[in-house]
Design brief:
The chain folds into 4 domains: about 5-155, Orthogonal Bundle (DNA polymerase, domain 1); about 160-245, Beta Polymerase, domain 2, CATH 3.30.460; about 255-350, DNA polymerase, thumb domain (Beta Polymerase, domain 3, 2-Layer Sandwich), CATH 3.30.210; about 360-595, TIM Barrel (Alpha-Beta Barrel), CATH 3.20.20.140. The protein is built from 24 helices and 17 strands. Helix 22 (about 535-545) crosses helix 23 (about 565-575). The longest helix is centred in the first third of the chain and has 17 residues, at about 5-20. The radius of gyration is 26 Å and the shape is globular. The chain binds 2'-deoxyguanosine-5'-triphosphate, calcium ion (2 copies) and zinc ion (ZN). 2'-deoxyguanosine-5'-triphosphate binds next to helix 11, helix 13 and helix 14. One calcium ion binds near residues 188, 199, 201 and 243.
């Protein structure tokens, strides 16, 4: 299996343990390397096998020390230095740092003072009032910890789409190469592109179930077989649970529809079917008009029908099952993309032919928010623009951080530095085939003010303004004030949520959307898989109010332009059509919007 994710997790654990022990610089080096390794397209063990330690150094941000640790992990399955650090401080680092406001240093302080190793320990100590007695802590910190523990607990059970999706893609690719498999697809939340995933569901059609289950158990990325039966199996792979179901080809469409969910969508479809004397289940759609009103059959009256494979009961004539299109058609509905299946009105829309014509990745023409080494990005303007062009964009706007609330360690640019960078961007623009705009990611302060002078904002082509501080409580007024600022073009990651880490602002989306529509300010769907902010339900409300969405990656390195697909699928979950999305416009359309 690809060990990239495991190595990345180990390096992040190194970073946490070093930070906990107050080591400078190194933690960031480890974190950057972890990020690059996780996003690297070639498996580390393949690189290592082919070119040894030197080959590992081809990965961005991987120097000699990290290459050695990676090699050690590939060879032995662990990193000795990390094991020693863990022995010194045997805490459940990931679980504890999942609590908002608890970082590695807090973990170390609480371990040293109170011996806290687990979330349960933390909760007990907080509830007993012991934490506020520890030096450097107070009642307010303790109260925050108590409040944030439930969110941390819940979030640890779900993986990010950004981590699960590549695994799902490889599951599908694997089964496509298995002879016994006729058709394969993913189902469940991963097929609907939910931002977080409980487990990955896969579905295969075959006439030889045993061969398919055997293949799954033998898949090179299967780390552990959790359970295996005659028509289903669950394995652990890349830290995820993957559930496979095998069905006969005649049932594939019905099973795919059923296991894709969501549960609420399925219930709505099933209720619609009942009114039509049809029964929809994972085996097919059945005409039950000839059966008793409760759907059960009286086997003595000789009605036609087939037997339910589970109960042996007669369930009526099968009218659909092989494809999803057929299943939906049987209940007089158009087929709809899985992203829509959240019971947000899609059942009605599919019944009356008014489903949206969702945008696809092909409709995206540019990216209006990414970072360079002028702020906290890894690469130069040139290199990032080149990567964007390779990705296929017609235009980009550089959006480095401005200094201001939420920017720490000198990351953000002053007004003067922004003007200097603008010159540099113009110079790159001259040398490049794609259109390159000069932008900024300004900070929205807690009162809605913008952290860059109006005169500088007026010089820039594209102003993204984002909240980076005080990201709890209601953010509506703050966002509305920023939206109304005449120089602001796009609100970046509007709620500031970090999936599994912090919930971000609550917002009254109707007020935010109305202000955005009235002022011609776009709302971003930030495609970084740690954010996916706006969430899809808010994006849907926004476009319904006439607001424009901008789908941007917030890339900090060249490979992160690939995050666009997560933003696009989030926009699809929000019912967005190309017309709703700013960066589906051509350059002229964009210029119009920006007033250029
Ligand atoms: P997850 O895994 O928590 O991210 O979310 P899902 O949606 O993938 O849920 P999962 O894996 O428990 O089940 C996959 C699909 O199977 C689900 O989306 C709909 C279907 N399903 C599961 N249980 C039920 C059920 O009790 N009733 C109905 N109608 N559908 C179900
Ligand atoms: Ca699932
Ligand atoms: Ca499942
Ligand atoms: Zn930002």
């Amino acid at each position: 299996m690809s060990k990239n994710a495991e190595v990345a997790a180990e390096l992040e654990a190194m970073a946490d343990h070093l930070e906990a022990r107050d080591v400078d610089y190194k933690p960031n080096i480890y974190r950057r390397a972890a990020d690059s390794i996780r996003g690297h397209t070639v498996a580390v063990e393949t690189l290592y096998e082919e070119g040894g330690k030197e080959a590992l150094k081809e990965i961005d941000d991987v120097g000699d020390a990290i290459a050695s640790k990676t090699a050690e992990f590939i060879e032995t399955g662990h990193i000795e230095e990390l094991e020693e650090l863990r022995e010194e401080m045997p805490v459940e680092m990931d679980a504890l740092t999942a609590v908002e406001g608890v970082g590695p240093k807090t973990v170390a302080a609480l371990y040293d003072a109170l011996g806290i190793e687990t979330l349960d320990d933390l909760e007990a100590a907080a509830e007993a009032g012991e934490i506020q007695e520890v030096k450097g802590f107070g009642p307010k910190t303790e109260e925050n910890i108590v409040q944030n523990i439930p969110f941390a607990r819940e979030s640890r059970e779900r993986s990010l789409l950004g981590e699960a999706r590549p695994v799902a893609d490889r599951v599908t690719a694997f089964f496509e190469g298995v002879d016994a498999v006729d058709r394969v697809d993913v189902a469940g939340s991963i097929r609907r592109w939910r931002p977080t995933i409980g487990d990955v569901d896969a579905l295969a059609a075959s006439e030889d179930f045993e061969a398919v289950i055997d293949a799954f158990e033998g898949w090179e990325e299967t780390d552990e077989v959790i359970e295996a039966g005659t028509n289903k199996a669950s394995v652990r792979s890349n830290g995820l649970r993957v559930d496979l179901r095998v069905v006969v080809p005649e049932e594939f469409g019905a099973a795919l529809q059923y296991f894709t969910g969501s549960k609420d969508h399925n219930i709505a479809v099933r209720n619609r079917a009942i009114d039509m004397d049809l029964k929809v289940n994972e085996y097919g759609v059945f005409d039950i008009s000839e059966l008793g009103s409760d759907g059960s059959s009286d086997s003595s009256d000789g009605v036609s029908g087939v037997e339910d494979p589970d109960s042996g009961q007669r369930v009526g004539e099968r009218v659909a099952g092989e494809t999803e299109e057929e299943v939906y058609a049987a209940v007089d509905m158009d087929w709809m993309p899985p992203e829509l299946r959240e019971n947000r009105g899609e059942v009605e829309a599919a019944a009356d032919g008014s489903l949206p014509d969702l945008l696809t990745g092909e409709d995206i023409n540019g990216d209006l928010h990414f970072h360079t080494n002028y702020s906290d990005g890894d690469e130069s303007i040139e290199r990032m623009v080149e990567a964007a062009a390779e990705f296929g964009h017609d235009y980009v706007s550089v959006g480095d951080h401005a200094t201001g609330p939420g920017m720490v360690g000198g990351v953000g640019l002053s007004d003067e530095e922004l003007l200097d960078q603008m010159e540099a961007i113009r110079a790159v623009a001259e040398e490049t085939d794609i259109e390159v705009f000069a932008g900024v990611e300004a900070n929205i302060d807690e009162d809605g003010g913008i952290s860059v002078g109006d005169d500088v904002l007026a010089e820039l082509d594209c102003v993204v303004a984002s909240p980076h501080s005080g990201l709890d409580g209601d953010g509506t007024d703050r966002l509305v004030a920023a939206i109304e600022h005449p120089e602001v073009d796009i609100i970046g990651h509007p709620t500031g949520r970090m999936l599994n880490q912090r919930p971000g602002h609550d917002i009254d989306i109707d007020r935010v959307a109305e202000a955005a529509a009235d002022n011609g300010t776009a709302l971003e769907i930030n495609s970084d898989p740690r954010r996916l902010d706006l969430r899809s339900s808010n994006a849907k409300a926004a476009i319904e109010a006439g607001a424009t969405i901008s789908v941007n990656t917030d890339a900090h390195r060249p490979g992160a332009f690939e995050y666009m697909r997560f933003g696009v699928h989030t926009a699809r979950r929000g019912w967005c059509e190309p017309d709703d999305v700013l960066n589906c416009r051509d350059v002229e359309g964009l210029r119009d919007f920006l007033g250029l």
